[in-house]
Write a structure and sequence with these properties.
Shape: globular
Distance between the termini: 28 Å
Keywords: Cell membrane, G-protein coupled receptor, Glycoprotein, Membrane, Receptor, Transducer, Transmembrane, Transmembrane helix
Number of domains: 1
Helix content: 55-70%
Pfam family, one: 7tm_1
Largest sheet: 4 strands, mixed
CATH class: Mainly Alpha
Mean pLDDT: 74
Organism: Anabas testudineus (Climbing perch)
InterPro entries: CCR1-9-like, GPCR_Rhodpsn, GPCR_Rhodpsn_7TM
CATH topology: Rhopdopsin 7-helix transmembrane proteins
Structural class: alpha+beta
Membrane topology: Multi-pass membrane protein
Number of helices: 11
Length: 335
């Protein structure tokens, strides 16, 4: 995720670097200005949206506890990431003035929050898939805490290379917080990011397409409403992440082929395609909270357009248990 700052590559082919942290007056072009503008917009739009999800927590009380937990974790992860964007925007246009420790820790924090957000989105899709297709029982509070703990632990482990490769460099324009690594290190980092992103993308696509098929067959919802939301979620995920994953593949190919021109193209455009992924943090509140909530019924099964035999089954189980569980509610929903 080299979208944050310029990158220096120690390579067997001639050294190639993106524009220095402090751009010369003649270099205030798309390499620095475009990602800086994109990050600024992400901050201005994403922070209020994710903060609203947390503040309006009571609005989601009709959802399962696991859905609430994942939504809040997603909002917190995105908010944590977005709050650091002013620093990176400044760095894109000028230089780094916060020291080596801040360089490593802030970059690590951003990586952790991005991985946490990505894993949470994937977990939401899996949770919805199990809940809709298999009427899977929700986790209790203790298991939910363990799940979140495991999610953040994985995010922290995946982000750990940042603590090694982030260094301060100095040139005639000033000091910069940059990733510095050899060909081998660069390939390993890019392959890790690409593999994780691709797996998450495939899981999300499979889960939501399966949900749509299940819902349409059961006629639990208007197929148009479900299709629209599922399509938006998949397209947004694909459009915002695929350019970055594709650029990673090109960078790996450039290193293996020792193609200096291709590597320069990758490095020059890495900030722009990387900044595009931050738009995902702006859209998440709309996709997973406000917009999707319109498709949610209430706890009473009569408010769902369930077939009569499902409603009857819910009523019988309610009378036996005295309350609804996630499995007996059989929420055919997208949250």
């Amino acid at each position: 995720m080299e979208q944050l700052t310029p990158t220096v590559v120690t390579s067997n082919i001639s050294n190639v670097s993106s524009p220095p942290g402090r751009l010369a007056p003649a270099c205030w072009d798309s390499r620095g200005l475009v990602p800086a503008v994109m990050l600024s917009l992400c901050f201005l739009l994403g922070v209020p949206g994710n903060a609203a999800v947390i503040i309006l927590k009571s609005k989601w009380q009709h959802l399962s506890s696991l859905s609430q937990t994942l939504m809040l974790n997603l909002a917190a992860s995105d908010l944590l990431c977005l709050l650091t964007l002013p620093l990176w925007t400044y760095t894109l246009l000028f230089n780094w003035i916060f020291g080596l420790v801040a360089c490593k820790l802030l970059a690590y924090l951003v990586y952790c929050s991005i991985y946490s957000s990505l894993l949470t989105v994937t977990m939401l899709s899996v949770q919805r898939y199990l809940q809709v297709v298999y009427l899977q029982r929700c986790l209790d509070q203790r298991r939910q805490k363990r799940l979140l703990g495991l999610l953040w632990l994985v995010a922290m482990i995946l982000s750990s290379p940042t603590l090694v490769v982030r260094q301060l460099t100095t040139d005639k324009y000033g000091t910069h917080c940059q990733s510095q690594y050899s060909d081998g290190q660069r390939v390993l980092v890019l392959l890790e990011e690409s593999l994780i992103g691709l797996v998450c993308l495939l899981v999300v696509m499979f889960a939501y397409i399966s949900i749509q098929i299940k819902v349409n067959r059961a006629a639990f919802f208007s197929s148009t409403q479900t299709t629209r939301l599922v399509t938006i979620i998949i397209v947004a995920f694909f459009v915002l992440w695929m350019p970055y994953l594709t650029m990673n593949v090109f960078c790996v190919a450039a290193v293996y082929l020792e193609n200096e021109r291709l590597l320069k193209v990758c490095v020059d455009n890495s900030n722009t395609v990387g900044a595009l992924t931050f738009l995902n943090s702006c859209l998440n509140p709309l996709l997973y909270a406000f917009f999707a909530s319109r498709n949610i019924g209430h706890e009473n099964p009569k408010n769902y357009n369930f077939p009569w035999y499902v409603t009857q089954k819910l009523s019988i189980k309610q009378s036996l248990s005295g309350s609804y569980t996630c499995s007996t509610r059989a929420k055919i929903i997208l949250l």
